[in-house]
Write a structure and sequence with these properties.
By secondary structure, the protein is an alpha/beta fold. Helices cover 42% and strands 18% of the residues.
């Protein structure tokens, strides 16, 4: 198939971007021709995982990059003009392009809109809405798509990365989505899991609104607990927040902007992985930690909690009372702990890129 993938911000090191790159890599392995449309592209130093480097090594030769900046009408129209020339079998785009799906549907056999977030700003932000209308006007003017903007058509399919995302998309955009959880790489290939007892791992972008201090405050009071935090810092504001956390929690070891291979080594050693965001729409790191055999602790209500069966392949906790769950975990027998780790690994294996693409192609 000839496939176009629209993902506006590939230079951001987030779960959505990682999932997109894994999907592209799997499409390439299956001998599909893939065109990536993105405002910005990832670099080797940024996505340092070997599999992704391999993917983009091939991409230099077989992928074509175009840059449809959402807020730049000229560049967007130039990219859309290219779309019009080629007949794509499939266009896959993030929810950011929701209002362009009618146009996409005219020049591809099928269109899939994948919501990793409900893209609430498309409705709530008046500037975004006005710019969307303006761009839609230019699309009409130059390409005569025949519609004002977004309209549901038969060859457009909507999917979401969790039930939580799908629920909010329904409420905001009145769209019914099928839930398709995102793909991950297998972190631990070895069947024998080597874990450091009482070593807890946290990961995430260090931003004040995430309020990591809420969980770190509770974790730091637990005896015989070692805490590693693999964080991502991308601004001066976030650097100040990092300094604040270091000063407040001197016992916590912070590792900043580490490579993917280094991150995966942290997963492999950690006894426990704590996911800290009760409002996250999914959380790819939870699956990555499960793949490495970590005992994952996930707050109830977030998207990632949907794949956790309490005390079977991980633990669910009522945010922010994570310490209660750790005490509960410590009471388990060695046999029960090994069983939960194996269940976590087996659960994570279901979310391989190959299975993801298979489900996607079969569905459409």
């Amino acid at each position: 198939m000839k496939i176009a993938v629209f993902q506006p911000y590939l230079d951001v090191k987030g779960g959505e971007q990682r999932a997109t790159l894994l999907m592209v890599e799997e499409f390439i392995k299956s001998n599909h021709i893939v065109y990536i449309f993105s405002d910005k592209l990832p670099t080797y130093s940024f996505f340092s995982n070997k599999a992704i480097i391999k993917s983009f090594g091939a991409a230099r030769k077989v992928l074509n990059y175009y840059f449809p900046q959402i807020n730049n009408i000229y560049i967007l129209l130039k990219s859309l003009h290219f779309l019009k020339k080629l007949e794509f079998d499939l266009i896959m785009c993030s929810g950011d392009y929701l209002y362009y799906t009618d146009f996409f549907s005219k020049y591809a056999k099928r269109v899939i809109v994948y919501f990793h977030t409900p893209v609430e700003d498309l409705k709530r932000n008046i500037i975004t809405r006005l710019s969307t209308l303006l761009i839609s006007f230019f699309i009409l003017l130059f390409f005569a798509s025949g519609e004002r903007y977004f309209k549901k058509t038969k060859n457009v399919f909507f999917i979401a990365n969790s039930k939580l995302t799908a629920k909010i998309v329904k409420r905001i955009h009145n769209i019914n989505c099928r839930v398709v959880y995102p793909p991950i790489l297998e972190v631990t290939s070895s069947k024998k899991l080597k874990k450091e007892k009482n070593l807890v791992l946290l990961t995430g972008r260090l931003h004040p609104f995430k309020r990591y201090e809420t969980i770190l405050e509770r974790l730091s009071k637990i005896k015989n607990l070692k805490i590693n935090f693999a964080g991502y810092v991308d601004s001066n504001k976030n650097k100040k927040y990092l300094l604040y956390l270091k000063k407040r929690f001197p016992s916590v070891k912070f590792f900043i902007n580490v490579s993917d291979s280094k991150l995966y080594s942290f997963y492999s050693k950690a006894d426990i992985y704590v996911f800290t965001n009760p409002y996250e729409f999914f959380g790819l790191t939870v699956l990555e930690a499960m793949s490495s055999g970590c005992i994952v602790l996930v707050p109830r209500g977030c998207g990632a909690s949907e794949i956790i069966k309490n005390k079977v392949n991980g633990f669910l906790y009522k945010f922010p009372s994570v310490e209660k769950t750790i005490y509960e975990y410590r009471k388990l027998s060695k046999k029960d702990i090994i069983k939960i780790r194996k269940n976590a690994v087996n659960s994570a294996m279901k979310f391989s890129p190959r299975n993801f693409v298979k489900r996607l192609i079969k569905w459409i």
